[in-house]
Amino acid sequence: MSIGKFYLLDTFCKEPFQGNPTPICILDTNLSAQKMARLAREFNAPVTAFIEPETIEEYYKIRYFTIEGEIPACGHATLGAGSLLLRESTQKDIEFVTIEGVRIKASRYNNMIYLEYPIYGRKDYPIPQELLNALAIKRPKTHFYCHELKSLFIELKNPNLVQQISPDFERLRKSSNELKEVVVMSESELSNYDFVLRSFCPWIGINEDPVTGSIHSVLGPYWKEKTGKADLIAYQASSRSGEIFVKILQNSVKIGGDSKILIEGLLLL
Fold this sequence. Notes:
Number of strands: 17
Distance between the termini: 7 Å
CATH topology of the largest domain: Diaminopimelate Epimerase, Chain A, domain 1
Strand content: 35-45%
Largest sheet: 17 strands, mixed
CATH superfamily of the largest domain: Diaminopimelate Epimerase, Chain A, domain 1
Mean pLDDT: 95
Helix content: 10-25%
Number of helices: 6
Low-confidence stretches: none
Radius of gyration: 18 Å
Shape: globular
CATH architecture of the largest domain: Roll
Order of helices and strands: EEHEEEHEEEHEEHHEEEHEEEE
C-alpha cells in the first residue's frame, strides 16, 4: 500500500546530474521520526525532506533528515519541495513550517523558485587552529560566525584557493563541538558570478554539501556590503556545482534556483 509519493530532484541547477541530489517524500499518512530516518539512510542523499500530510493554518509541515538523523533546516530540500508543490498549482507562493516553528515562504518568479529567509547576523569567532589545519588554510582574508546556523564562514583571497581545498574530514569534525558547517568562499573572478563558495558539514554526516541554500541568509547581506549589489549570483564549486540566485530585501533574503525532477514514484511500506 502506498503511503505517499517520492521524487528525486537535482536542486540549484539547470541541468540534470548537477546541483544537489534531493529526495522529497510527500506523505499521505504520518510516519514516525524513526521511519523517516531509516528512509533517509536508504536514500543515502545529503538531505531527504518529508512533507507531512496535515497542514497548520495552510502551512506545509516539512522535516529534514541526513543519514545521521534529523536536522532543523535545509535550504536545497525546501527549494525542491517548493518546486514540486507549486509546479501544478495556480498559487504563486506557499509556506512551510519546520520542526522548530520557522516559517519559510516559497514563491514562483520567472520560472524559478525563491525561498524567503530572515537575515541572520554575523559575529566574531576564534577559529581553532586544528580547524585551519584540517582545511590547510594558512591566512584567511576574513571570517565570521552565524549562531542561528552554527556555521563558520571563511573568506579567502581568490577562487583558486577555494577550489584547491581538500579537507581532512575526520580531523575537521574533531576540531569543534559547536560548529555544524564551515563555508569557504571568495570573490568570483568570472563576470557572471559575484562570489564562489564551498560548504563542509562532517558534523551532520555530509562531508561536502554539493549546493547550499540557507547560508545565503548570511552571505547575501555580507556580499551586498562588499559589492553594493542587492541581486547576486553565487557559484558553488563542488564536484557537482550549482547556481544560487540571491535577492537582499530590507528585512529578509530571497534565495532562488532551478530544480530538475529525475525520478517520480510511490512509497511502499
